[in-house]
Structure formats: structure tokens, C-alpha cells
Amino acid sequence: MLLFWGSLLCWGLLPQAQGQARHLLFLRVSKDQLETDISDLFSEQRILDHVTRIPVTEAAGEGVPILDHLPFVREGLSRKSSRLDLSLVGDLLSGKSLPLLEELFQAGGLIIEDAKGPEVTLQILSDSLFQVTLQTKLYLSLQRILRFSIIKNIRIGVRLEQTGNKTRVALDDCHTPPGNLSIEVLEQMNPFLVNEALKVITGVLDKTLPFFLQKMVCPLATTLLNSLLEDVLRITLAPTISGPEDFQYHVTTTELTEEAILMQVQLVTRCGPGQRAPRPDHLAPQPLPKLAQGSMADLAFWLEAYNDILSCLYTSKELLVDLQDSTAAALIQLLSPRELEPGPETSGQSRGSVGLTVSTPDPPTVCLDGHTAMALQPGSLVLRGPSNTSSVSVSWKLLSKAMFSSKNQELELQFTPNSSTVALGPHPAGLAGQEERLEALVLELLKRTFLPHHNELLREQGLPLPSIKGISFDQARMEPSEDYMLLTVPEE
Predict the structure, then answer these.
(1) From CA 55, how far away is CA 137, in angstroms rounded?
(2) What is the residue-wise DSSP string for 408-419?
(3) Where is the signal peptide (predicted)?
């Protein structure tokens, strides 16, 4: 029943006129995958290494003197040796002298011993704006008096700007919001000293840490982020693929959705004689289904667009059937006109002068029956008489469950012989009453002889897939969904 209804859906999707094809596709990269890619890149480049082993006060004349950037600290408060007069700083911070704080800072200062992270989260703000948050955990020590950790966020705004058919990445301000310090004491020598020190340290870090992180982390982070996003929005053919002439992918528009970056992609191919022309502009695609759970990306083909692409890739080859095949012999006997039927004395001569060919000039077509993809191949079986003086033709349409593979950056369509059915078209009038036998013989011949040859031909005419940084279609699986075929890349 599935194949029967599938055949009714497929019969109307046969080729039309020729023309250059511009096919509309959709490429989606999930928000979770983008978060992972950013996090992996920042970890590989060790963007927090620049903040480790740096004093927050210039205890040894090295590192970044972030206290120098407090609004009430001026050059007059700094000693010529590049050290701060911490007694004056302490007076300004608290309104009175804090000899203990001065002593602790002069003894070595507050040091960032280590940094962990960043943990990356991505928040979609609109269809063209999102925010990347880098959560960092800093481990600090104040000599042997106090060790503690601080969690602080760095935020980078990203805007996608559309100019014509090009999308440009524009990074907004990279900054650390003030306040909201999350401090955890790890080690302490004296609770009284700790409490006094934390009062001043908290105030200092709350005012200076945003500037410090912006200065030490933001330049590298924004450079890496911009490069990564530019790579995501730039899709090309894989360098190992030698595709058809003028075979190109172009990202035309980009927008942000709740679950992914959605890119509208135009695929340009050159169609040969007799191949399908592009669909009229008024046939707009249906809304995309949701991104499959557990997928990092997908390439979505509107069904009509996929069939257009398939037709542009297709080149037919006639198959000459081996006349020694038992099914071929039975078909020749059934289809032969009286004058071609071998007599007792001329059997070998007559058999040698006829030919049986399978012709499939039109490309296969894929249709959807619910969530099952079906492949339809029209063709004809032609029996030619001696010296091509006469011929008998039987047209047919073969329907099969479609199988897809995406090895070596190419998408290949395959027919499954075991699920195949055939429907006969026009055939000789003299076969009235023998249609069932003819259909059975044609199906047997197509399954056993034609389909292995045809599947091999289709493997040679695969669809070259785009190359995108961080995403490989080699392990992708095809998931039919209503009006779309989704080539889905599962999470690793």
C-alpha cells in the first residue's frame, strides 16, 4: 500500500523544460553547536593565559597596575619606582589609614594565580543580533593570608548586517558588566584580617576588574570570534571535489532563529539539453520544520528544488541487456513479432540479430510519502529487430524506497531493489491478457540487471556538498519531513 500511494504522489513530478538552474536551499547551524565551536576555539587559543600570574597591584614593577586606572588615582600617587603609595590609596578608598592593607599589598600584592574557562553561552536577542557571554573563573591570592576565586562574565555583542546578497559580521562592544562579584574564599589565615581585606579587595575588583579583563581578554576574543563567524557564513565546495561546471554555493541572506543561524543558500548549476528548468519564482517554499533534536546542523532541500538539482546532475546511459539472461530471453519471446520468432532452423541466427535495451533518458525523481522518501525512475524497454528494421517498446515507471548516503562530501541517491514495484505504460496491443506476466518479467529484469547498473551510475553523479568550517556531511543522514528533505549532521 505504501508503494502504491507513493506511486500516485510521484507520477506528476517528471521533468519539464531545460534551462540554467538556481536552486534555493537552507543551511542551519544550531545555536548549541555554535556555542561549542566558540568554546573550543577559545580553549585551543588559551585566551585566559594572558591574565594569569599578574598582580592586581604592581608589587614587583611588572604586570598590569590596574589600580592606576581608578578615577581617583593620579600620577602624583605613584612612586618613581612605579610602585603605588598604597597608604595613600588606602586612605582614599576607606577614608582612613589602613596600615594592614598597605602592608599586605607591599608584601606582594594581590595576584591572579590561575584562570579557568571560559564557559560560553549564546543568547539570541533578535533576528540579527546575539550576545556571547564568556564566564571566567579567576583564582587570586593575597600572600599567604587569603586565597579566593571570583566568577566574572565578559559579554560580546554580535550583529549580522545584510547588504544585498552579502552578510557581514559586526562586533559590538566587548565588556565586563560591573558589580555582581561572586567570591568564594578558598583558604584563610586570620578571619579578622580576611574580612578587612575583602572589604577593600571587593571594592577594588568591582571597579578595576572590568577594565582589566577588557584590556587583557577582549582583543584576542573578538578577533577569534569574528574569524570563526566569517568562516561559518562562508561556504564553498570541498577542495577535493571536482564538481560540474559552474557548480557554486552562495549565502544570500542570514538570520537568527531561536534554535539556529539560518542561511538561505543559492546553488547554481548549469543544466544540459533536455534537463529540468528552475521552478517559477511564485512557487515559494513552505516553512522549515524544526531542527532535529541532537543535530549540530542541517542542509534543507525543498523537495522541488532537490528534484531540479537531481535532473541537472543526471546523464543517462543505455543498458544493453545480455541476451543469455533467462528473463531477457523470456521477454524477447513475449515481445517478438511473428516474423522475428525463431524457427527450428534459424533460431541462432534470429536470436543474434535482435537486441534488448533499457533506456532511461529522463532523470529520477524523489517524492515523499509521509516521512518516507520514494524514488521514481521512468524508462522504456526496447526490442530491436534485425538491422534495426523494426522495434517493440514497453514504457515503465519503477518506484522504490530511496536511500541516501553522503560519503566523500557528496550526496548520493540509491534505489533499493527489494522494495521496487513497476507500473507499465503503453505496450503492444497483441499482449492483451498477458499484462501480468509482462509486468513480472520487466520488474525482474529491472531489479536484477538494471538497478545495479543504474545505482552505480547515480553514485558517479552525486551532489557535491558544501564545505563549512567545523561541520562535515560525511556522517549526515537524510530525514524526510513533509515538504523538505533534511540532510542532518548529528552531534558527535
Answers:
(1) 16
(2) GGEEEEEE-GGG
(3) 1-19
Q: For 428, list phi and psi in degrees, rounded to 5.
A: -55, 140
Rg (CA), the chain: 36
pTM: predicted TM-score of the whole model, two decimal places: 0.78
How do strand 391-405 and strand 421-424 relate by DSSP bridges?
A: antiparallel
What are the E-state strand segments in 285-435? 295-302, 319-320, 355-359, 365-369, 372-384, 391-405, 410-415, 421-424
Task: Render each residue's pLDDT in the chain as its tens digit; 492 residues.
Answer: 444 334 444 544 444 434 567 888 999 999 999 999 999 999 999 999 888 877 765 333 344 444 333 333 333 333 333 343 444 334 434 434 345 555 555 444 678 889 999 999 999 999 999 999 999 999 988 776 788 999 999 999 999 998 877 888 999 889 988 777 788 888 877 676 677 777 777 877 887 788 888 899 999 999 999 999 998 888 776 554 554 455 788 888 999 999 999 999 988 887 755 565 455 554 566 789 999 888 999 999 999 889 988 988 898 989 999 988 999 999 998 988 654 444 444 444 444 578 899 999 999 999 988 889 999 999 999 998 776 666 889 999 999 999 999 888 889 999 999 999 999 998 787 787 888 999 999 999 999 999 999 999 999 999 988 888 888 888 899 998 878 999 999 987
